[in-house]
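Review form for a predicted model. The reviewer records the input and the model, then writes brief findings.
Reviewer: anonymous (R2)
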Amino acid sequence: MKKRKVFRLRYVLMIALGLFIAYNVSHALLTKETATGPSSGETAVTPSPSPVPTANEPEKKPEKSARPDPTPTPDPTRKPDPTPDPTATPDPTPTPQTTKAPQGGGTANTASPIYSISTKNKLVALTFDDGPDLHWTPQVLEVLSKYNAKATFFLVGRQVDKYPDMVKRIVDEGHAVGNHTWSHAQLPKLTPEQAREQMTSTDEALKKVLGKGTYLFRAPYGAVNDNVKAVAAQQGQLIIGWSIDTKDWAGSTPDQIMNNVKQHIHPGSIILQHSFGGKGGDLSNTVEATRRICEYLQAQGYQFVTVPELLAAK
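Model under review:
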């Protein structure tokens, strides 16, 4: 009985010793692990505890992470205004116009045709329409050269196209040239677009030959209406009429032409004659009348000038 009690006491002591040893070993291992951290290759993650709502506070939803506002896309229909140049002056709205003639002088007045000018100087402008050609135009030029008289030739575009060398001779001898439409058309019977084509085609022909056009324009037959005036203004053309019609085109004799001139001449006059065409294609009356006009008016103290020179004398 005594031995059984001793055995039980030993058994209890052994169990107690085992528990003590196990406790110490476990405590040592736990202390080492805490000091050295997690084993290599593992990352310690500490979960964030979800907030527990209180009884008096409603549960809060997690806030979204803040993002920067995106850069606004520029409106494609609007562009930023450039910084104005303080020295720049805005250009005025340009007035449509063709190249001015090489003769210079004169300011465009497209409100109505110019038939003559008012001046105290004894100046007169001889003008010749419908050319050039190779027969009558050279004869007229010879007379003008003999008297050192300058004139203005209103040329038809298709004639310019045929005889470019004669156009050059006219200018080389100091005379002025003007636009007399492409085909000697009656402009009031045309549409504005057709009238414009008559003017621009002739101006282009002159540019092709001379390298420059003209701002002088004379309507065939002197026929103009509001549409023709408007087109001429848009093209920068100055409409030139006449104050003395010699009617050489109708076959007037040199004597009849001279009487007409003597009755109507005054300082600033514009005299109409022709260098192509005529009644039956004959302009011998013009050639002779030009010689007499030059002699007579020079004797009266008149000076023969081009239309641009006459306009400049206003």
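Findings: Residues 33-110 have pLDDT under 50 and may be disordered.
Further findings: Residues 2-36 form the longest helix (35 residues).
Recommendation: see findings above.
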